[in-house]
Amino acid sequence: YWIVRTGMGLENAKHAAGRVLAHQPFCLAVSTGFACALIAVDVGALLAGYEVALARGQGADVLPMSTVPGIERDVVVELVKHVEPSGHVGRFVSTDRVVTSATEKRRFAQTTGAIGLDMESAALAAEAQKAQVPFVVVRAVSDLVDEDLPLDFNLFLRPTGWIKGVAAI
User: Fold this and answer.
1) Distance between CA 159 and CA 162 in Å, rounded?
2) Residue 26, Cβ neighbours under 10 Å: how many?
3) N or C end of the chain: smaller count of CB under 10 Å?
4) Contact call for residues 131 and 21 (beta carbons, < 8 A)
5) What confidence tens digit (pLDDT) does each residue in 80-103 have?
6) Residue 40 CB: number of other CB atoms within 10 A?
7) Sequence-distant (≥ 6) Cβ neighbours of residue 86 within 8 angstroms
8) C-alpha dihedral sign at 119, 35, 55, 135
9) Are 3 and 33 in contact (CB under 8 A)?
10) What is the pTM for the complete model shown?
11) 126-132: which pairs have CB atoms within 8 A and are 24 or more residues apart?
12) CA distance 12 to 81
């Protein structure tokens, strides 16, 4: 087992996954961490899936990613289905920024049919596919589809944004 910290965002995830998957054979790549729920669940619920869409900008350009099949991947998804309270399995969507408004979250849910939203899984899925490694997403819910976040967390994605972000807190 390898645990690789990719950092936040599509570019960081792509770079880290590309380096690791290019130099060693793997039976399974797993994208873990937190996700925004795009379905009605509670914070802390477990979401899983192996289909990931990529949405850039305002979500108009959503491209489903194909997947590499694998027994290990299917076992993980079955385990999540039986978690108490029940885990949820479906499509994820990855964006290039933190989505902070409930209105935008609902739009992503409607246009993509996804159950969860994050910032890394699409890049990890693409690199796993390139390396012909089965891939699965398993993430815990950090925020809800009908919840506006109290702060623009995108400030923290820019080098100088930390000062503005801390000031906003």
Assistant:
1) 7
2) 18
3) N
4) yes
5) 888 877 789 999 999 988 888 999
6) 10
7) none
8) positive
9) no
10) 0.83
11) 126/14, 126/54, 126/65, 127/13, 127/14, 127/17, 127/18, 127/21, 127/29, 128/17, 128/21, 128/29, 128/68, 129/65, 129/66, 129/67, 129/68, 130/18, 130/21, 131/21, 131/22, 131/26, 131/29, 132/68
12) 29
Local structure of residue 65 (DSSP, 8 states): P
Give the number of other Cβ atoms within 10 Å of residue 122's Cβ: 28
Nearest to 30 by CA among 13, 53, 9: 13
Q: Which residues of 148-164 are buried (b: 16+ CB within 10 A; e: fewer)?
A: ebeebbebbbeeeeeee
Residue given tokens 């990719």 in the structure block: 6
